[in-house]
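Notes from hallway chat w/ T.B., transcribed later so I don't forget. T.B. wanted the structure written out for a chain they're using in a teaching module, and asked if we could keep both sequence and structure tokens in one place. Agreed to drop them here.
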Amino acid sequence: RVHPFHVLRINKMLSCAGADRLQTGMRGAFGKAHGTVARVRIGQILLSVRSTDKYKAEVVESLRRSKFKFPGRQKIYVSKKWGFTKWDREDYEKMRADGRLIPDGVGVQYKPNHGKLSEWCKIQADLAGL
């Protein structure tokens, strides 16, 4: 979800005796790349995990442990949606049984109740196994 594209830079300064003769102060102080960070807003999603329901406890525990690697307060939210789709679990199962959702890779295709009759007949034949 979030990627570290922002580059942190550092202008190293000497702190030994006679360093004032070697340094140029703020002249040319762009600095060298020191690391990268991700700029995030409050409430922005940092990680998303999709798994089956039998691994729910393990996923929540791994996310709880990963919270300590990030500064600030992090929340773990278990979605009521099916996978990364926009439908709730019970709606998804009902629409899938009715043939309105067709599997397409990691997502699904939504087939509404209107459209060509020939396409509807083809979908119903596929569901019936003909």
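Follow-up for T.B.: Helices lie at 19-22, 56-66, 89-98, 117-128. Might be a good example for the class.
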